[in-house]
Design brief:
Elements lengths: L1 H28 L3 E5 L40 H8 L19 E3 L19 H19 L1 H10 L1 E5 L2 H9 L9 H21 L4 E5 L8 H4 L11 H24 L4 E5 L1 H10 L32 H10 L5 E3 L2 H6 L2
Parallel strand pairs: 1-2, 1-3, 3-4, 4-5
Antiparallel strand pairs: 5-6
Length: about 350
């Protein structure tokens, strides 16, 4: 019995050592992937705390996974496809129980989250909290890999961020839209929080960032349904706010690149992509560009069931290898290939 215990201890010791060694070797072979944002990127973090903003029931997850995973999609989400392109495993939600090594990265995104702490407060993991979780991950990586190897992993990693939709959309859905006289100030607050978070990641050795613009926010079915039926148009105020955001973010990223040594980014033009998706359906193999795939009411814009994200693979593909008309100054493939 004693010899059996000894062999078992030796086996466990060797197994743990092997995990650590292979974890160290991975630094030479892959680029880690860290994700921040809202429901577009949430892989199931909202499953693990008390909130009504969850996607843990059918028909969510009915295609690829065959069961609800917490993704706000019938299958995979954008980060899942990008991880596949980068030859990485699916990046897990940060709050998922288990012994995470974080060598491949982790996903902090939360459905309903915003750049502002006040957006859906109490129901989501806001961006500031997501960054605080990332700091904990950095601390664990330093403990497990040592400072030098952790710095290498963090500086080679790609950081993907999608945030802002709920900051502008939630007040409209709550029938408390931001007054037009305060638009510039409000957008400044959102961009200020977002760029502060990017700089926080930069201070922790992050150098390569991927971001999406908000695009034609008012044309999303959940907002489009608020426009009187006889007008048959998008919610123009929401789109105008999103346009202010996108132009301010583009300018902020250029400023960060000029100021922060080694800072690189890929910024996707969702306005162009979404307008093409609505007006030229065949270009992306779509059958419908104005209505949601699931829901009730006009444009199926009332959230009465899960939703399909038929565009996720197309968006991910363009983020990965799109040309300068849709993403720049880098695409994600170039960022993953750059050391």
């Amino acid at each position: 019995m004693e010899s059996l215990r000894f062999l078992l201890c030796v086996f466990l010791l060797c197994a743990n050592s092997d995990i650590q060694i292979r974890g160290h070797d991975l630094l030479k072979d892959h680029v880690a992937f860290f994700i921040f944002g809202d429901s577009i990127f949430d892989p199931g973090n909202n499953n693990y705390f008390n909130t009504t903003a969850q996607a843990n029931y059918p028909p969510y997850g009915e295609t690829f996974f065959k069961y609800p995973t917490g993704r706000f999609s019938d299958g995979r989400i954008i980060p899942d496809f990008i991880a596949e392109y980068a030859k990485l495993p699916l990046i897990p939600p940060y709050l998922q129980p288990g012994n995470h090594q974080f060598t491949y990265g982790v996903n902090f995104a939360s459905g309903g989250a915003g750049a502002l702490v006040e957006t859906n407060q109490g129901l989501v993991i806001d961006l500031k909290t997501q960054i605080s979780y990332f700091r904990k991950v950095v601390k664990l990586l330093r403990q497990n890999l040592g400072d030098a190897k952790a710095k290498t992993l963090l500086s080679r990693a790609v950081y993907l961020i999608m945030i802002g939709t709920n900051d502008y959309g939630s007040p409209i859905l709550a029938n408390s839209p931001v007054p037009k006289s305060l638009w510039d100030e409000f957008v400044g607050m959102v961009i200020g929080n977002l760029t502060a978070s990017i700089e926080d990641i930069y201070k922790l050795r992050g150098r390569k960032f991927g971001l999406l613009s908000l695009g034609q926010l008012g044309c999303r079915p959940i907002l489009r349904v608020l426009v009187p039926a006889n007008l048959s148009s998008c919610y123009e105020e929401a789109t105008a706010l999103a346009d202010l955001h996108d132009r301010a973010l583009s300018k902020a990223l250029q400023e960060l690149q000029s100021r922060l040594k080694g800072f690189k980014y890929a910024y996707q033009n969702m306005t162009l992509f979404l307008s093409e998706g609505v007006n030229d359906l065949s270009k992306y193999g779509l059958k419908e560009g104005k209505a949601a795939c699931c829901g009730s009411g006009r444009y199926r814009g009332v959230c009465s069931c899960g939703g399909k994200r038929g565009l996720t693979d197309k968006i991910a593909e363009l983020m990965w290898s799109g040309n300068s008309s849709v993403i720049g100054p880098y695409n994600l493939k170039e960022l993953f290939s750059t050391y």
